[in-house]
Amino acid sequence: MNVAVVGLGALGIAFATFLKKAGNAVYGITKPEYLKNFPENRLCVKGIWGEHSVQLDGIYADPSRIKEDIDLIILTVKSYDTETALRQIKPIVDKNTLIMVAQNGYGNYEKAVELYGSGKVVLARVIFGSKVVKPNCAEITVSADDVRIGDPSGKIDREKLLKIVNTINSSGIPASYSPDVYSVLWDKILYNCALNPLGALLQATYGQLASREETREIMENVIKEIFQVAQANRIPLRWKSAEEYINHFYKNLIPPTAKHYPSMYYDLKAGKKTEIDALNGAVVRLGEKAGIPTPTNQTITNLIKFKER
Fold it and tell me: What number of other Cβ atoms are within 10 A of residue 294's Cβ?
């Protein structure tokens, strides 16, 4: 398979390295100022899935330099760069190319569908942890579940989806087909909205947030508002009620990641922009659309934006 990975941060490096090591033709697309970080097109990965080093078939700032027909484009950029990246890849999207959105938050898949049509866009929920340890090297720190891959629109041939799943799975990244991938993605949005901004603001681990009554109350209010907003916008969730999800959240989701700090914490620490607009900020916008107040998500969004500046 000919693959282009857009965004060579922690997640992009992981996908590109494993897919290349498995024998696929893999190209990286990054910003011009980052090209110097990848001498001789080399990437590496270490961590719980072993140590691997590869040389990609090319790393470019301009996608039009890729002359091969691309079967799959994997979008791993931060959510605030999504629209720019989607417009940038237009020269390498032909009639047989599929775009796989593998990002955090709400709105990335929707933007890709708006620009390219639902029959071209695959959705992936990624829940393995990866961090950059050198400009061209990432470390896989934790894996909570398979990369779940599917087509919310139901327009893409199932065999094409299974080919993507099998290609990624056989590369060493656990992956599986998920017909309800949109609901699965919202599981992660719930988790991220409750934990990431609060952990970043308080410089606390997930376990610390769950251990105190004050922060538990805030997280539970975030979750309850999301359930109200999802119902009003007819967004399918896999849980019957906020209370059912909250029980699962504390019992099953927090313990394996109790010692982890959110990625948003590291973004703020490095003076980088965060993905708050695709998380709690998106909840606020969906609430406004449906006339549902979201005071907790609004407050958290405002506080993160203050810290960003």
Answer: 24
Q: Is 98 within 8 Å of 160 (Cβ atoms)?
A: yes
| SS (HEC) of 198-252 | HHHHHCCCHHHHHHCHHHHHHHHHHHHHHHHHHHHCCCCCCCCCHHHHHHHHHHH
Contacts of 206 (CB under 8 A, 6+ apart): 195, 199, 254, 257, 258, 259, 260, 261, 262
Question: Hey, what are 49's tokens?
Answer: 């899935």
Element (H, E) at 138: strand 137-143
Contact yes or no for 37/67 (Cβ under 8 A):
no
The full set of domains in the chain, from first to last, is 2-179 (3.40.50.720), 183-308 (1.10.1040.10)
Q: Residue 167's pLDDT is what?
A: 98
Q: Which of 128, 139, 132, 137 is nearest to 53 (CA)?
A: 137
- Nearby residues of 263 by Cβ (< 8 Å), 6 or more positions away: 131, 196
Q: For the chain, give percent helix, strand, coil, nearest 5.
A: 50, 20, 30
What's the pLDDT tens digit per position in 107-166? 999 999 999 999 999 999 998 888 899 999 999 988 888 999 999 999 999 999 999 999
Token look-up 């992009």 returns 12
Contacts of residue 224, defined as CB under 8 A and 6 or more positions apart, other chains included, come to: 242
What is the SS3 assignment for 95?
A: coil
Would residue 188 show up in a list of annotated catalytic residues for this protein? yes
Looking at every residue in the chain, the average pLDDT score rounds to: 96
C-alpha distances (whole Å) from 49 to each of 22, 63, 129, 130, 253 are: 14, 29, 11, 11, 21
Other Cβ atoms closer than 10 A to 69: 11
The answer to whether the beta carbons of residues 78 and 278 sit under 8 Å apart is no
292, HSE (Cβ side, Cα atoms, 13 Å): 21
* Catalytic-labelled residue, pool 188, 259, 269, 273: 188
> Which residue in 98, 97, 141, 144 sits closest to 125, CA to CA?
144
